[in-house]
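Below is one protein, fold included:
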Amino acid sequence: MEENLEHSEWLKGMKNTGFTTPSNYFEGLTEGIQARLAEEKLKSVVTEGGFVAPEGYFTQLQADIISKTSGSSKAKPEPKLIRLWHSKMLKYASAACFVIIAGIGTLYFNQQSDTGVSPMTEDMAMEQMLYDIDEEAIIEHIETNPELIQKATASELAMENYILSNYSQNDLETDF
């Protein structure tokens, strides 16, 4: 505690020494330093006499402006001409290529549109034809062709008989 008392007395003594900082000193410090640096750079660039125009600059200025705008002092260079079609052969060859490509494209698109029926429509038509066939016609066809009966195994015949005897055409269409 004795140290704290001595320290506070010491601080009181320091406040009375007369050293103080001006208000807003630290807020304007960086701006002041930067302004001084810029001033020094500007002084090093500018010579003692300041900026000086070359001798006779203003007397020749009007003549220079007139000569540059009127174009009388210097002849303009001729523009360089670049031909796109160097020869007649190149013109005809490119026209022939265009006609060939257009013809092939026209043939291709006409051939695509001539088919008329899409593959999806053909599949649907074939499927509908299978549903339109009567069960009796299928059974009659199988019974009249001995080749179909000979190829069938016993298990296949048993499956066919079971399906035909236990399911109707509507059942087969909806279940599968």
Remarks:
- The two ends are 101 Å apart (CA to CA).
- The longest helix spans residues 88-114.
